[in-house]
Specification:
Blueprint (H helix, E strand, L loop, with lengths): L2 E10 L2 E10 L1 H23 L3 E5 L6 E4 L1 H7 L3 H4 L13 H14 L1 E11 L2 E14 L2 E10 L1 H19 L5 E3 L6 E4 L1 H7 L3 H5 L12 H13 L3
Length: about 230
Amino acid sequence: FDMDVSLSSFTLAGRRHVLVILRDITARKRAEETLRDSEEQLEKIFNSSTNGLSFTEPVDGKILNVNDTWVRDMGISRSDAIGKTALELSVWANRVERDAYLAALERDGGLREFEATMMVRGVERQFALNAEFVDLRRGRFLLWELRDITEGKRAEEALRRYELLARCSRDIVLFVRSDDGRILEANVAALRAYGYTREELLSHAIGALRASDTRALLEEQMDASDSLGL
């Protein structure tokens, strides 16, 4: 087992003596080894993550380390980032969002899927932020995860706009499943034209709404939509 040995000499009754103190430090050494293993695992996860990660001081927010994904997504080199804060790097596009994240961090002790706008190479992009406190041998730090959700948010916005246009259109708009022709969604104009409630219309396939002499044409239209990837 591991021992901590302390030696000290002293003179007693004209004779020189040595005081030897032995202290069992096995438990401490095991705890240190466990902590080292945990930090090594954390370092491997940190460097291999597909999301941007950074370590910061919990008080002043100075960046201690960033991974390669963070460098790529934020467009800032590691050497330029370390030792600076997010404010100094001018990555926050919206000061109100930054104040909200600070308030949430103080209130909840961490962040979960906090959406914020960041400046990347002079362009605004949307990120989802996660943050939690991590205790290491050197002290307590904040581990940040940044995930670029810009494209997903753009797709959601485009879908919302398309749905709005479809609902308000005076033309009949039907969303139909390509494999069996089942109706997935319909706008108000379609409900009025066919005289069904929404629930009734969605229980039908598109073929049930077509005259028998036009069903061959319907099959051609469905095949054409498949070839176009629609």
